[in-house]
């Protein structure tokens, strides 16, 4: 799909590299499992079915989990108006528009392609941001749609899901198995260790891609609107308000961190484990872009 979002070749290269590396790890993982487990085919089929469901129904799954609903222009004229203007500027099809009724300020894009794409905004964000700030957030989300990185992230997460399923499957089959207990224990231990290593590798690769795609969407979205400072203002406001929301409420949506505009919860351990770059990194990059574009101070 050609749009007026600037082509992001570094993002495309990183997505291809991540998928390639995960493919190599996946092939090695399956080869080892075939040696250790006779019933690995069942696990792979189950994992593939889960991936297919997540890929083809990601929009429905996300909207249902967030208790969001598709809204019409009559229901949300301001939101639709901003998206209409941005899509016209970007020369891209308009995605469906959804609103999640929650005070947590956030937004996300989902869907495997432009035809199935949905941009969802929470009522908390609609209340907190002015029009310029909301435009910055929505241009960020539309960049995700234009670059198709939502679909790539869904596929890239497949190996981690498979590794987790294999670890559980081997554990349960060992607990229920009979005969040659010593050999069974060794096989279970080997499979569990290999699965954990594979999960860790895939986890770190996907998180690295996730952080870069957020920086790429910040840049592409800000270049589309020509107002990096508005996006920086929205980031600052949303991140500050998220810090005041009870942790138990944020944990209920933590699974969506990789797709949110701003993470509901930080990793608290290391930048290697984060789905997003630090707030300061994002603000600094937008400040550099603002200087490049000669944008007046906001």
TrEMBL record:
It comes from Amycolatopsis acididurans. Its cofactor is Zn(2+). Pfam families: Peptidase_M48 (PF01435). This is Protease HtpX homolog. Zn(2+) binds at residues 140, 144, 214. It is found in: Cell membrane. Binds 1 zinc ion per subunit. InterPro entries: HtpX_protease (IPR050083), Pept_M48_protease_HtpX (IPR022919), Peptidase_M48 (IPR001915). Its main location: membrane. Keywords: Cell membrane, Hydrolase, Membrane, Metal-binding, Metalloprotease, Protease, Transmembrane, Transmembrane helix, Zinc.
